[in-house]
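To close the chapter, one final illustration. This time we ask the reader to focus less on the individual chains and more on the assembly as a whole: which components sit near each other, and how the overall shape emerges from the parts.
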Amino acid sequence: MKAIIFINYKEGILDPEGVTISKALDNMGINGINELSVGKCIEMNLDCSSKDEAKKIVEASCDKLLANPNTETYKYKIMEE
Amino acid sequence: MKAIIFINYKEGILDPEGVTISKALDNMGINGINELSVGKCIEMNLDCSSKDEAKKIVEASCDKLLANPNTETYKYKIMEE
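The assembled structure is written out below.
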């Protein structure tokens, strides 16, 4: 079983890396970008037999370690291989 | 037009954040994760009319700033809104 997790800032929370990259691209002459946000993307190979079990591992990982509950949200996809 | 870019380490390049997270989860009693890798995920809102134009902006951004050509690879998706 494989899982991909996307972790982003919540709406209204400043994304300093995104702002910096946006300005840098503009200064380099790469225009046409209105909005840019940077998040983390975590891929996991899971050793379990059911999607429910995979969901439990992914949610426990995000809730207890990967995502900051104050400032970040996460979404994920689970794929059978 | 909207673009999502995924940036990951090339195969064979050590992913120190991934190794650290993997060990931490195991120590916290969250087991069943065989392999874990951490990448960046960048979302862009683009001010352009065609997919070709969007592709050019995304590839220029990755090649010139976002991805390290020595250690990282990128893939992307472009969506019309």
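The beta strands of chain A are 2-9, 33-46, 72-79. The radius of gyration of chain A is 16 Å. With these observations in hand, you are ready for the problems at the end of the chapter.
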